[in-house]
Amino acid sequence: MDKRLYIIYAIVLIDIAIGSVIWPILPALVKNGKNPAFLLSVGTAIFLGVQLFTAPLLGKLSDKYGRRPIFLLSSIGTLLANFFLLLKNTPGYFLNRGADGLTNGVYSTIRASITDVSTKENLTKNIGLEGTMVSIGFVVGPMLAGGLIILLGVEGEESIIPLIVLGLSLSLLNIFLCYLFKETNNHLNKGKFDFRSTVNPLSNFREFLTLKTKNTLLYRLLILNACLVLTLGYYHYYVTFISLGELSMSPKEISFFFTYMGLISIIVSYIFYTKLAHRVNPTRFISIMALIGVLVLLSYTFIGASKMLIYVVVTIDCLTLSLIPGVLESQIGDQATKENRGKIFGINQMISSLSSIVTAVVFGLLTIFSIELPFYWFAICLVPLVFTNKLVDTRQKTTAGSV
Length: 403
Description:
Layout (H helix, E strand, L loop, with lengths): L3 H19 L3 H5 L5 H14 L1 H15 L1 H16 L7 H14 L2 H11 L6 H30 L7 H21 L14 H4 L2 H14 L1 H16 L1 H12 L6 H26 L5 H18 L7 H13 L4 H11 L6 H26 L7 H9 L5 H4 L12
Helix pairs in contact: 1-8, 1-9, 3-6, 3-13, 3-18, 4-5, 4-7, 4-18, 5-6, 5-7, 5-9, 7-18, 8-14, 8-17, 11-12, 12-17, 12-18, 12-19, 14-16, 15-16, 15-17, 15-19, 18-19
């Protein structure tokens, strides 16, 4: 495995850890407002909304100037964004979400960078292992947060400042890792860079629509990924569901829950992507996991106040639904060329951001009526992926070179 992948995976791990350290305190920042669940959803929409502009921009910039400068820019942006949390109020929460979203489009660059150093044979494994790093981040973050809370003997609002300081410390570590990272893009795009069209969502959306005739397979894969992102909005909804619903988890319980969820995800994803992924038919696998995933999402509506039951459901979730993103994104990466990987993943993240905004607004509105209702929405959005095997034939590969 290319040594640069280790740095990429470490950057992903720490970035996710930063987010999962901060998540447990977010409900406390908006609890004094009217309908805190809705305010959390608005913050999520802001965080994702700015990526409509920045994801394609960062992706294309990484094609033209390299992946390393974008990594550094993103890590510095995360550090600065977390300073707003020190305000300990709803405006500070919204400022953090907006500022952090400006550079979170880096994930288009991360996937492009992984594709840069991967062969066709190990692309699914390498992108899948990125998902494993995400899972590890979800373990490391809550473990550090929970450990710090226990060490300091704080609870509730007293834990806000210590966890923010922890997040800032991890942000500094990620800046150092990005500094160590060595460039993977050896095919810089020498073409003219049109900033105005790059940050124009309508222009990028029109470019996405042209794929329907230039690369039908890639177009369908991006559509399916958009549906998946609509579903995965429940990841952003987790904190709201387990803290403000019948479960009423405290910051410490939230940290322990995400630690458990992350540990299961690490074990499952590592075994799958290193031992099994290359043996499965990707489209058939996605179809089967999506069918099971629909049932899993509906199961969340029956949890009520049972903390034991949510641990059972999330375990099944990690065994099935959580494996879909890595397999689907590897198929998208396989369709990109060396010259336009950042661009393709940037368009993909733009479409994903739009889907995330839609799903955040929808589940935010649904919480007004019922804390469980959003899971019906997430299940409906996953249904198109049940038919992936019929919609996508990866054996008939086209190229994205003219995109």
